[in-house]
Amino acid sequence: MAKPNLQVALDHSSLADALGDIYKIGDVVDIIEVGTILCLQAGQEAIRCLRALYPNQIVIADTKCADAGGTVAKNCAQAGANWMTCICSATLATIQAAAKEIEEIQIELYGQWTVEQAQKWRDIGIKQVIYHQSRDALLAGETWGEKDLKRLKELTDMGFNVSVTGGLTVQTLSLFREIPVYTFIAGRGITASVDPRSAAIEFQDEITRIWGDGVD
Amino acid sequence: MAKPNLQVALDHSSLADALGDIYKIGDVVDIIEVGTILCLQAGQEAIRCLRALYPNQIVIADTKCADAGGTVAKNCAQAGANWMTCICSATLATIQAAAKEIEEIQIELYGQWTVEQAQKWRDIGIKQVIYHQSRDALLAGETWGEKDLKRLKELTDMGFNVSVTGGLTVQTLSLFREIPVYTFIAGRGITASVDPRSAAIEFQDEITRIWGDGVD
């Protein structure tokens, strides 16, 4: 299996705080996400700053777009984002409109969604989905389990590049060892740790230990 | 039936453009919405500017929040928003977390949702929903019909204050005459018209003509 990417989600309420944290770990992670909270707080300036600081990395705008896909995607692309997220409850028309304006769309799987829907996303050319444990669900005591792994397998079998997120720690990564995960997304698990740089390196080391270094 | 409110959605990609438009109509409309596009472009500064200009009006942040409800709602309230939207696919935990931090939450009905879900929102104290024709669905040729009116009636019968949006014109308002609509939301139907102020006044006049002036 290919080595999964490590993505850091910058879910800060302040752009300055986000920049302070990414500066410590930007060269360790593979993908930088402008989290929804930061998008809503700092607007497209957050995307612009991260694009300026990291011209060669993938920058994702986690807009969870539900409507006006064309305009939102165009704005994100203009600000420098490579990819953007749409919520799974968005209409196909919204997702298609967004997909025309930016390199790739990732579908965020929240709440109810079905394999039939997922197949429709594949049929219109969507390659990526994000499988979530919601932050609020985690706070309410839910955690990763067999049910999640089964659904993840379904999605990778359909040909999706699947990103996984929600309460991930270095210790939980091995739960996913049988799944060709495309990207692990960590937020406060890295940025809120005592030593964010060491935390990011530990994630990368554990990913390499389990999945190899991607070199055949 | 009570007179429905008129809400203008500022779905501009530039804060300056939004402020230029609201200045023409701010005193005519009942509710001012910081649209999703504007939230994502200008961040919380958009909410702050509108709160500063219209200290006595209801300001809504159309975040379509899908996760981290507590943080997003707290940030919106701090910036001066009265109400905030959550997407219907958000978990109950997310909606509850958001509801604790801001005056009221409005649930945006996009894609698949059920009456059972809606009852759960009522059960946790949510009073408002927004019934949508998505912009992209409208662009794809869909329009208001019997199916929509039937679902609207279900929602008002459940006790929700229902806002209605998506491609509304002065001419379409009478379609809803049998429904106790709480708020009509217009965006470009007002802001992109040749004379936004006249357009807003025409909406208000037609609402008064159909539903009365709210005085018994």
What does this structure look like?
The structure is a homodimer of 216-residue chains. In chain A, helix 6 links the parallel strand 5 and strand 6 (128-132). Chain A is globular, with a radius of gyration of 16 Å. In chain A, 52% of the residues are buried. Chain A is built from ten helices and eight strands. An eight-stranded parallel β-barrel of chain A has the order 1-2-3-4-5-6-7-8, surrounded by seven helices. Chain A has a single domain (5-211), classed as Aldolase class I (TIM Barrel, Alpha-Beta Barrel). Chain A is an alpha/beta fold. Helix content of chain A is 43%, strand content 20%.
Secondary structure layout:
Two copies of one chain form a homodimer.
Chain A lengths: L4 E6 L4 H11 L5 E4 L1 H7 L1 H10 L4 E8 L3 H11 L3 E5 L4 H8 L4 E6 L5 H9 L4 E5 L2 H5 L6 H12 L3 E5 L17 E4 L1 H4 L4 H16 L5
Parallel strand pairs in A: 1-2, 1-8, 2-3, 3-4, 4-5, 5-6, 6-7, 7-8
Oligomerization category of the chains in this entry: homodimer
In DSSP terms, counting alpha (H) and pi (I) runs of 4 or more, how many helices of chain A? Answer: 10
Briefly note the CATH topology name of chain A.
TIM Barrel
**CATH superfamily caption of chain A:** Aldolase class I
| Global morphology of chain A | globular
Domain module count of chain A: 1
Strand content of chain A: 15-25%
What is the level 1 CATH name of chain A? Answer: Alpha Beta
Give helix % range of chain A.
Answer: 40-55%
- Uncertain regions spanning at least 5 consecutive residues of chain A: none
- What is Rg of chain A? 16 Å
The profile of the biggest β sheet of chain A is:
8 strands, parallel, barrel
Structural class of chain A: alpha/beta
What is the number of E strands of chain A? Answer: 8
GO molecular function (chains A, B): 3-dehydro-L-gulonate-6-phosphate decarboxylase activity; hexulose-6-phosphate synthase activity; orotidine-5'-phosphate decarboxylase activity
Catalytic activity (chains A, B): D-ribulose 5-phosphate + formaldehyde = D-arabino-hex-3-ulose 6-phosphate
Protein name (chains A, B): 3-hexulose-6-phosphate synthase
Organism (chains A, B): Vagococcus entomophilus
